[in-house]
Amino acid sequence: xxxxxxxxxxxxxxxxxxxxxxxxxxxxxxxxxxxxxxxxxxxxxxxxxxxxxxxxxxxxxxxxxxxxxxxxxxxxxxxxxxxxxxxxxxxxxxxxxxxxxxxxxxxxxxxxxxxxxxxxxxxxxxxxxxxxxxxxxxxxxxxxxxxxxxxxxxxxxxxxxxxxxxxxxxxx
Length: 172
Ligand code: COA
Description:
This protein is of the alpha+beta class. It is 30% helix and 23% strand. The chain starts with 7 loop residues before the first helix and ends in a 9-residue tail after the last strand. One of its GO terms (molecular function) is protein-lysine-acetyltransferase activity. InterPro entries: ESCO_Acetyltransf_dom.
């Protein structure tokens, strides 16, 4: 975990990784709300490579994704294809939240090995000293299709919290 008060070399590395993650996500990411309060988790492989990154920030509000009714879908593959194609909507009703996941990224060759899940578990126990965040206290910034599939699975519901979405109210 890298914190804003850590040595400059660590912050520089985090900046480089964030830039690479933003390029990989392929669109302009929302700027961090309060840089001095962000926490960055890096997942380092046995051969000392950064294969996962999670950037979290303090937020006050999240907005619940509104689940669309799925058409009759036969296979898991079809469900994933459908999820990838459709836009998502969320409620305009703010709900209290504590931790915003601004970026979550895993190296493409290492996906589906529970690295993102492990980074969130680690975040939940380390974001606020002495407390373990519930899934209800976490929101995802404008999720990508991959992010939505992951969050749905991790949170156990398609109605997880989001913030920073385009054309919506901001959470600050
Ligand atoms: N398609 C379908 N289900 C997915 C999925 C995908 N692309 N990614 C995750 N899931 C679901 C699965 O149910 C998975 O469990 P399973 O593999 O046993 O079926 C579960 O979520 C846990 O996934 P996990 O292995 O912990 O996630 P990951 O390490 O592969 O990382 C992302 C998930 C989203 C971080 C990764 O796909 C990624 O970096 N994508 C590019 C960046 C991005 O879009 N980030 C999201 C920003 S909001």
